[in-house]
Amino acid sequence: MTRLHLLYTEGGQSPWIDNLSRDAIRTGRLANMLDDGIRGVTSNPTIFQKAMTGSDVYSADFARLIESSSVEQAFWEMATADVTAALEIFHPLYEQSGSSDGFVSLEVSPRLAYDTEGTIKDARSFHERIAMPNLLVKIPATEAGVPAIHQMISEGRSINVTLIFSIERYGEVIEAYLSGLEALGSSGGDLSRVHSVASFFVSRVDTEVDRRLEAVGTEQALALRGKAAVAQAKLAYQLFLERFTGPRWEALRANGAHTQRPLWASTSTKNPAYPDLLYVDSLIGADTVNTMPDATVAAFVGHGTVAQTVDKSVEQAGAELDALGELGVVMRDVSQQLEDEGVAAFSKSYDELLQALEDKANINGANMNRANINSANVNRGNANAANAHGEDGSNEHKAQPQS
């Protein structure tokens, strides 16, 4: 038993891995993570970019796919193949846990972050194509993404809501989930088949807030560095507790609805001056998920602390956010900037990945052309030799007719 098991059994939090690659699937590393206590998988365009450009394990598959598909189609074929394989690895946990864990996430194209109808179409397509109950399709919590979340939930499709940076937007996400469930129930749908997590990004908040505090430069401002991200996440957890209680939620739960758990994302520490597990040890609590990159998982297994922390010092968290506002650090502005940057970062990774695959396709095409030319030259050489030596390969010339 590892600390990851204790995090779940004693802390009430499900540890997920924020990484996915074909190499991890084929070597059994992903299955070993499951044995060590990892209970789910998240992926995103940056993760696939690193996986597909940093390894030759995709080369043969890509070369085969590109013969009849565009580069973008080939990417999605490879990504869905990886996600499907991971879903199969984690499906037993999904069953054993009563469908509370064992999920694997696949994100819609980042080019659709501001396109509601395009997001709906993409998310619906993924669920129809990968018809497994432990699939979560990731939809960003942009202004255009929120109505798409509602629509997908109302159709009975499970969703991982990503790129949440503010408490206000988190409230909109919760409402999209609850109203989506109500619409599903009104149409006779099965609420028990729908699952969702709300991915609240953490460490990036401190990165931006700290930058603004350093620009203020006062002693009071500098003392607040490294406080905003955890404080905001703790208040988000309070909103979660508030919204998933009371008559409205109880009516949904009576009809089989599952809680939309908060998922802490971006939990690796960006500032080396901060503890490496600042965004894990500080946010442990019941009905939560923490998705961590490999290094953070290893750090937690090595020296993490399992204790209920996410509901501690809540008043202090509120006071810290108030103090930020008094210093001119407006969290609404911070969250909008981070959302814009998050969408741009994923779009950049996606574009760079497609360009890398395009370059590989061109190299493959050039190699194929050279191979075809060489083959043609060999065939012409063989034909010339056959004409010179006779079709049977002998060195006897045919008798010439007499004039």
Estimated helix fraction: 55-70%
Examine the coordinates and then state which fold CATH places here, giving the name of the CATH topology. Answer: TIM Barrel
What is the global morphology?
A: globular
Major sheet: arrangement of strands: 1-8-7-6-5-4-3-2
What gyration radius follows from the Cα positions, in whole Å?
A: 27 Å
How many strands?
8
Residue fraction in strands: 5-15%
- Poorly predicted ranges: 368-378, 381-403
Major β-sheet annotation: 8 strands, parallel
Assigned CATH class: Alpha Beta
CATH H level: which superfamily?
A: Aldolase class I
CATH architecture: Alpha-Beta Barrel
Distance between the termini: 98 Å
Number of domains: 1
Mean pLDDT: 92
How would you explain this protein's 3D organization?
The protein has a single domain, classed as Alpha-Beta Barrel (TIM Barrel), CATH 3.20.20. 58% of the residues lie in helices and 10% in strands. The protein has helices at residues 3-9, 22-26, 29-36, 45-53, 59-65, 71-96, 116-129, 145-154, 167-186, 203-216, 219-223, 228-243, 247-254, 278-281, 294-303, 314-326, 331-389; strands spanning 13-17, 40-41, 103-107, 135-140, 159-164, 196-201, 261-265, 288-292. Strands 1-8-7-6-5-4-3-2 form an 8-stranded parallel beta sheet. Helix 4 runs parallel beside helix 17 (331-389), helix 7 runs parallel beside helix 8 and helix 12 (228-243) crosses helix 16 (314-326).
